[in-house]
Write a structure and sequence with these properties.
Layout lengths: L2 H32 L4 H27 L9 H18 L7 H33 L3 H34 L3 H26 L4 E3 L6 H10 L1 H32 L4 H24 L4 H24 L5 H37 L4 H29 L10 H29 L4 H14 L2 E3 L1
Antiparallel strand pairs: 1-2
Length: about 450
Amino acid sequence: MTRKESFSYGLGALGKDMVYGLAAGYIFFYLNDIIGISAFFLGSLFLVARAFDAINDPIMGMIVDNTRSRFGKFRPWILIGTLMNAIVLVALFTVPSLSGNTLLIYVSVLYILWGITYTLMDIPYWSLIPALSIVQKERENIAVVARVFAAIGFTIVTVGTIPLVKMIGGGNDRFGFSMISIGVALLFVLFISIMVSNVKEHVVANQDKISIKKMYEILKSNDQLFVVMATVIMFNISTYITTTLGIYFFKYDVGNEVLYSVFAGVAGIAQILAMLSFPLLSNRFTRKNIFVFGVSVSIFGYLGLFGASQIGIFSLPILFFSGFLIFAGLGYMNILTTAMLADTVEYGEWKLGIRSESIVFSIQTFIVKVSSAVSAFIVGIGLEVIGFVQDAVQTTATLTGLRLLMFMVPIFGLIVSLIIYIKRYKIDAKFYNQIVSEILKSRDLEIK
């Protein structure tokens, strides 16, 4: 890849994750704390919507893999999905003056549409990685570029949203969120348009179209894909619980919701620095060593936040340093799992003789959304169980429950994720090189 292609691909991730940062970081808070929809309903809605994605996402992956056009099979869908998702995003954050069942139906339809249109764009975006290079180290570097830009986009939105909502809204948070969503949507369309213009496929498989039956055969036969899926779901749920509850923690426990933006900024910087240092670490250590290190660092950060909050020490250096550790560890894991998922494309091709980037990466899109939904469901149920009351002073028991939910539950998820990875994932560098060598000898694969 040229530098222009790498930068453009990263710019696409910047816009994409600005949208995702707004939706994942604030949609639950916006609909619950500002619009007034119950946490239990929202958690249930998010979970039901993701059940639909279990069928929708792989089928979208199959459609992308079967696309033949002079612009390739990925870029047309990236652009179409972006335009549609941008419109739905604005509608979702511009809830009209509705009430009762009408409000719930509006929110439900828009949220499901947001998931569908995000799928249209996200699957072909990440599917480009194995189509950009077949060299494992270069793929890691591509993943670093994409994830760093994504982290920047996510951080910009996470840090800037609340202060901008207060400033633009002037006391009307509904209006503030609506204006922010319009700005993010416009930048999203601009950045993706630049990416689509400059990035082209380099690895092209010449093969017949894939049927629905063959799609499920591809998924069923790729055991390593399901290992990566289980690994990522567990640590994504952990991350999303933390980010969803972060604003609740700072508003009701620390007592200053604006500090959440600073915390999110520290978290974003931590992820970016971790990702930028990844190439240096990968030259000296194995993927397994880096993964273990990332999980361990995150767990130490969670323990620091839980311990400090339990004894009532809300020292900003302690809070922010602990947050830095959590998200630095997650930064390493994000790079690794993206590269691991790309490698399962060749693994599946090696086993079945069919190359299916988008079907494989439809699982990543599904993972992201199902993790977000499960975490929202856990948060929704958890807030009900601990006795959370909207816009009120919380009891000591409620605050303790909030800390357990935000810090200790994620530790459990990270440990499970690590166990799955160590025991089940087997595509190391030696095995991957063997797979690629055999594919190039026996498959009709064109390298441009």
